[in-house]
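Dissemination and training. As part of the outreach component of the grant, students in the summer workshop were shown how a complex can be specified as a set of sequence lines and then modelled as a single object. The example used during the hands-on session is reproduced here so that future cohorts can follow it. Participants entered these lines:
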Amino acid sequence: MKGAAWLAALPVAVAALALVPSPARAQNEPLLVPAVSQSRIEVRQGFTGARLLLYGAVMDPGGARATGNYDIVVVLKGPTEAVRIREKERIAGIWANAGSSDFRSAPAFFAVASSRPIRQIVDERTAAIYELGTDFIQLSPSGAIDPAEQARYAQGLVELRKRQGLYQENPGGVTIAENVLYQARIDLPSNVTTGRYTAETFAVSRGRVLASATARIEVVKAGLEGQVVTASQRWSFFYGLGAIALSLGMGWLAGRLFARG
Amino acid sequence: MDVYLPIANLSVNGLYIVLLGGLTGILSGLFGVGGGFLTTPLLIFYGIPPTVAAASAATQVTGASVSGVLAHSRRKGVDYRMGAVLVAGGMIGALIGAGLFSLLQSLGQIDVVISILYVVLLGSIGSLMMREAVNALRPGLLGKRGAQVKKRRHHPLVASLPYRWRFYASGLYISPLAPMILGMLVGILTMLMGVGGGFLLVPAMLYILGMSGNVVVGTSLFQILFVTMVTTMTHALTTKAVDLVLAALLLLGSVLGAQFGTQIALKARPEYLRLALATLVLLIALRMLYGLGVQPDEIYTVVPL
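and obtained this result:
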């Protein structure tokens, strides 16, 4: 397997990197060397979701192995979009949409994996700065509604997407081996949105984020599925004709077959 | 059998979708209803986004109707003249429906309006059909009333409209305005609810227009065939929610189901068929009513801006 081969070659690569410490780097900051099992995920026929392996090593700039005890937090974030959240209320005995609130930057996917529960690793302020947790996603609310109400809508969005598997929190989802190698698994469900994803890895010690590194992952629709989506967007009229032709053709064919039988 | 639906953006069990298509296909062959009133709610229940469900169901209904129309036309069960008038009205209705759809969507009330429409329409038509079916099956108890119903050919309002045309196959001499208005109303519903509208059209043809029973199902399917084609195109151009993979799976089931349905329809007693359809329609109306009154699983919904 590709991932396994990479892991085997890791100590060599890390040693090479450790030999050339960056001069701009402060003395005690550890070095983070991240990698992703796939930098491109193709959504094609039979796609039922994907498991992404985010792994790497934490090193002291001087030595080959980190001396302190580190915690690792991995945040995988999908493309952001502007959304409107609607809230249902009981009106005259019927559940109907009542209020709404707009958010300018709701990520289509958001997953946090950490070596320990986030609350034990950093304080709330640090977690909010680095968006370490679904409670700290910067959704950028727009419009003038009071903060308490906005928080309720934000909570509603997060809970909804958690149930859809699009927002995840996995304390203990990162394993650290020998204080050097870490690995995290994040499962993408089949209903993921395509686009550019970013995986941020943070090395945390004593409540402080000491190092961070970013990797990009591209999620694209490929093969026939990709072509179907492109056709529906760009050549809508012919796509519609195609759909009609398909239904007429299949109906006619079945009619003919049965008439003979 | 996992199948990824590119427009709906999720993975489903293909076998379920084919079976669902087969079920609605049998209904369409049996009763001349498109089966959309069953497909759309069940697809939504399965987790497919409502707009994709409605758009792709319309495509499926086209396929189910074409084999139904072919089967019925072989036994001369289609009044093409009446069908053409209905289709003309239906196209105007589909355009009005598209306008209403986007208006309600921007207000955020499309889902609740769809549910209320289902409850009101399916509930009232289901009860009406149920009463007729029960009356027909128990002539001993309600002999007098049954005879009265048979005497009246069409609704007095229909008779009062001007410019009469002859519809030979239907055995009617009425104004084309009546089927035109009927077609238009059904067209609006097709666009709004993702249904063919057969459940409304068939009873209206029987009890309001007073069409001869043997051409009702075929002509209804003929109208549905053309109106769903227009609806598919409208969805492809505006909502871009027609999922070809989903439609193909539904079609596979439904075109086969429609053939079985047509064969059963030729053998079974029409009174029993109407009773069965009435029961089904009422069940769905009740399910929808329950959904409106009970607190939904998800209070919040997300729409892209």
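The mean pLDDT of chain A is 83. Students were then asked to discuss how this feature might be tested experimentally.
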